[in-house]
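Reply to dn_fold:

You asked what the input looked like. This is it:
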Amino acid sequence: MAELVGGAILQSVFGVLLERLTPDAEFLKSIRGSKLDKNLFHRLKPTLNAARAVLNDAELKQFKDAAVKEWLYDLKDAVYQVQDLMDDISTQNQVCHFSSASLKVHDRDMGIKLEAITDRLELIVKHKDILGLKTNYFFFRLEKGGEGNKISSRARHLSYTNLSFLTFDDVESFKRAKALRTILGLDSHWIPSSIGNTIMLLDLKYLRVLSFKDFSALKAIPDSIGEFIHLHFLDLSETSIIRLPDSLCKLYNLQTLKLHHCYNLEMLPNDMHDLVNLRYLGFFGTRVKEMPRGMSKLKNLQILSKFILGKEPEAANIEELGEMQNLMNEIEISQLENIKNGNKACKARMMEKKHIRRLTLSWSSGDDCINDSHSEKDIVDNLQPHWGLEGLTILGYRGTIFPNWLGSRSYNSMTSLCLQDCKNCWMLPPLGQLPALKELCISKFDMVVAIGVEFLKGDDCASVIPFSSLEVLEIKNMSAWEEWHSIEIEAFPRLLRLCMYDCPKLTASLPIQLVSLESLTVTRCPLLCGFIPRCPKIQDIHISGSQNVVLQEHMLPHSLRNLTISGNGMLEAMAHSEIVDMKELGLSDCSNAVSFPVVRMPQSVTRLSIRNCKQLEFLKQQCDMPPKELSVTSSCDTLASLPIEISPILNYLCISTCENLIYVLVSDTPLQNLRSIDIYSCKNLKWLCNDSEYLLPNLLVLSIHECPEVEPFSNGFLPSCLRELRIDSCKKLLAHHREWHLPSITSLTISDDQDIVKSFPEGCSLPATLTTLKLEELTSLETLNCKGFHRLISLQELRITECPKLEKMEGEKLPTSLRKLIIVRCDLLEERCRNKDEEIWPRISHIPAIRLSDEWISFHTTTHSHRYYVVTDKYIKVFPSEVVLYCSSYELMILSLKEDFRLG
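and this is what came back:
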């Protein structure tokens, strides 16, 4: 485990403190009217500088010199006291500003503390020369350590991860860590809500950073959150909270508030405007429909994910957005239908917001019929952004045409543009004259019938090459579009990817020549006819549901790497083409009789997909196909089995809806490389193969779904090498589960929606090697027979999902090896477990971790499961992270947490 010595964070603490002590800093300005001795701050600054200069050398020497180590402890403790004291002074000034309270007593107390800590810090710094500490070092030191199960009272930074299990078995030690500044919950998805409640009820008045990201069990934030008055960073993203308490608005030092993907959150507190130091407010993926008034008072706000215009008088209006002049990066302005007068939109002052890089303008879905299209156009006209904008998205615009600024060459930094769901627009703006545009998406223009020269450029740009920088063009869901004409031969000189989806009336041809095109996708454009354009560099072609699109000269380009085609015409082209380096091939919707190897297949193909080719055949003994992965769906109706010779190097096979298939494979030759097989909806399938032990010597994973005639697993049906088995809705197989003969599998998943299994395992001999058992959607399951589990000495996880009739457990208790029991959407059983029913609880109470739907009800400590991390001043854990901007406090350097944290 990598650990970063605490100097990195302490360096940042020094930086923040010294910045506060600069003459123009807000901190010194805020105390000008106080009785505090300003000379103490003049003494403090050089002392901090002197200590900071030798900090890195001390961090290195502490591992070999006990005296330096002790000196470093004293220094860190003193510096943190300085930070706490300055925070107290700043906070009290703000509180008294709001309450008009006297600062006299407070100033006297703070002055005494400040003098004492300054004297102590000066004494500590004097010892640096005795210890031989040198300046001008800058490095990191990686070290092991920092893991434990008791939290030191000197701990400053704490992180924890469930790694499937989490527990605080020593709550008292957690309560003693009152000096904590950082609490990070990593990989917190299944942590019980009690952990969050414990943390938020603690006396952590110095806490700066609190992250509960992905803490799905967290449903409520207590009012006590308002007591964390020094909190700078709060991340509640991906929790289940419904509301935020009003007390949160007392966190006057809060700089970052993240609420992304809190799907149950419907509103923000009314007093959000009191968070005067807030710099980052993000709440994408919530149900918030309006913002409270007064948001314009947040003068320091730089990142605002969304500004929602409300209907009600107490909701935020467009004028408030105009007063927020420090906004930067990306913002969405939503519910623009609530602007009734187009002239009011100019009050947003979007042209003045020079630091916004990406802008989204959106209208809520609903009635697209409007009485005044000119007013709709005026709204967008008056929301015109500054010329330096890099990305623009317009969603649900209700006007009939766009204002003139959209498409103007003056937007010479705009690289991406998306116009979607503009159902009343009957023509596209001249987007081809945007000089830097690289990505363009156009979708759901229900009134557009034709696209022509107006799309390429305006009348005043005759010499401009249309779409000179465009690399990606997507046009989709254009229900009325019929014609695409007047495409100049020099247009799209750099286009790399062209995608067209769901244009049912489009009949015109594609652009004639796209010299740079590398990828072409045409899907569900049934009337589109003509040739695929000449593209010397093309590598990917995907044509489906568009059978009138054909290749020029019926030849595939030699540069092709991935090909997905449908229809007889495209398939015939393969017989006339030689391609030496194709990697992926997909064939679909071919009604003619066709055979491999009559259809040529490059030896380089590694993935082959065949769909809806009913008369396709594999010519046995003549076919040596190269793919490592093969998928066959609704095809090969003439075959009762697949010849195993189709690919000797095959490692994955998927078969779906092949109605006449009886055996998956029949052969005399083993398939040494095959590791995984998935089978879906083959109604006549009975057997895997004629000799699985011989033919499938290395098969590890087998899934069988909705195959009602598959025979019970008698001896030899499954190869002994199999490790993972999934069975779903196989009527005959499940009806005879008592007769199964399973090999040494480690994972078994069983699903049944056909009312067959009522008791499990009920006589079924499960292998002792099983470590994971999942029972899913067993709609008739009523009883779990624990006696049938007694041989499962290796079982560690039992997961039961959506078994609505399951209510009983019979026999002895579940195996002692079980580490985790998860029961989801089994209402009858869950209720009995929550109530610790005397017939249920004795059979499961020994299991360390028990989860019912989204809540853990039991979390025991075991020697193997206990994993949480305590980081004192000695060690600061290194996390994968990205720097959080717009926040001045030191902790925020490590706190924009990615989803893929892995500790250990």
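The first strand starts at residue 3 and ends at 5.
Hope that clears it up.
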